[in-house]
Request: fold
Amino acid sequence: MDHTDALTRYIGNFVDELASSGLSDVVISPGSRSTPLAMTMTEHPAINQWVIIDERSAAFFALGIAKKQQRPVAIVCTSGTAAANYFPAIVEAYYSRVPLIVLTADRPHELRDVGAPQSIGQIKLYGDYPKWFHEMALPEGDNKMLEYARSKASRAVNTAQEGNAGPVHLNFPLREPLIPDFTLDNLWGKREDAHAYYPVTSGARRLDSKQISDLRNKFSSKKRGLIVCGPQTDGEFAAAVTELAASLGVPVLADPLSQIRSGLHQKDLVIEGYDAFLRNNEIRKELKPDYIIRFGAMPVSKAYLFYINEHANVPQYVVESEAGYREPAGNETGFIYADAKLFCRDLVETGKLNEPDSEWLETWQEMNRLAKKHLNNTGEQSAVTEGEATRALLEVIPEAASLYVGNSMAVRDLDSFFMTTPKHLTILANRGANGIDGMVSSGLGAATDGEPVTLLLGDLSFFHDMNGLLAAKHYQLNITILIINNNGGGIFSFLPQANYENHFEALFGTPLDIEFKQAIEMYGGTYSNPSSEAELKNALEASYEHQGLSVIEVKTDRTANMEWHKNIWKNIEQEVLDSRE
Reply:
């Protein structure tokens, strides 16, 4: 068997096994050394191909697809620094537990470390971030090697999504010539049945009856409990956790990414405004709980971090679906490894857990009511503020839409102004590493399934990934992007760096002083710049009727925005404190 035949069958069996094991999408960046992978992926009838030129954008685009569809996505690139440009998205995938299958082409061994062009060290290029790394064997066409190729493809798909999901990395040394021969018979190496090479059957983790009983006794002996929900993806979790809260008679502090603030489940115990009133030290002291049950990662709110730091001696239990030690406060913590919704349901099924402390629950609810009064009624402004823009978006966003939110101020404003709603919304974000890079590409990746997606982000995040807009033009993806443009890094105005005026603008404020309109039109998008809340709502509603890319830019002032936010927080704190006298 000659080289081309062996190459074609080896890569063909590998790609076919990816599909047989459940892969349906691949994001390809162009290059020469990756030709066998790229062309074979494109030929396969069961795999959707997305071609994104910039590897950094491509990896975040794949991350968005995988996050929205909750299944593995492959990325393919050539050798050299092309592979290095994947790194930020791989870091994010690791920390946010998103399954990515990273396929990097490489020079064969004889061309490594000898000064050959476009050759870098790609063995374990991404360090410990991949769940699994494998250097693929050089292509051969005998049956044993075709089975080997299939076994690694199937393992890659399984490993990426088993347990805590994450990235896996396979590195392919490939010799020239690189063009496959698609005229070969039995190109995909079809077997009599089409099951995966490594079919895996697994179930959700669940505590046994004794473990549930032991935890029930711990919670039943205390009345002032607190449930805290960080980012979640399970659509059934909200109903299960709110039912548990009702059984315990405790409030639920719901992060905006918890999927609890929207939907048709009961929400009378859901506390959305906790970030506002927990900013006050006296209030934090008054609200000392007997125990805390947290589901998933820490919430966005920094005020909540202050709260648990000050109550470090309170028993805390963190429920994780598989494993992990996500406890940044460093408090003594009991970890419960179980499927979150099953854990909630199993506890509820043991019967009423205790006689709730009605005053405890009512205190949280009253403070939340006072906070929401101010957050929902922020007064008449001469221009749209950042919080009002977020609130307006949430009022008009369509039912069953997805909202992808950027980091820094965008996710914090969502935390403040996203009130409970019967709408069913899916809230997505890159909160693994919390970076501003790749946000445009991630949002566009989430839009590939055809459902409406809105991306809310700041001007620096938009600028950082502006070339990601090419995917919207190339594939006619439907997305609304709402840019909150405060001409720089608005979040730094709330941090101690703002006190150092000599360095602040150059190092932290970093104003761009550019107009986005021309760039948006270059990528075939529509652009609007509303100056009032009514105009903003009209622009958003129009964007949801538009096919393709719609960008709405709200321009704000960083200093005025900081003062506006601080004034709201001050009024909330004062009214809550007055109500306690």
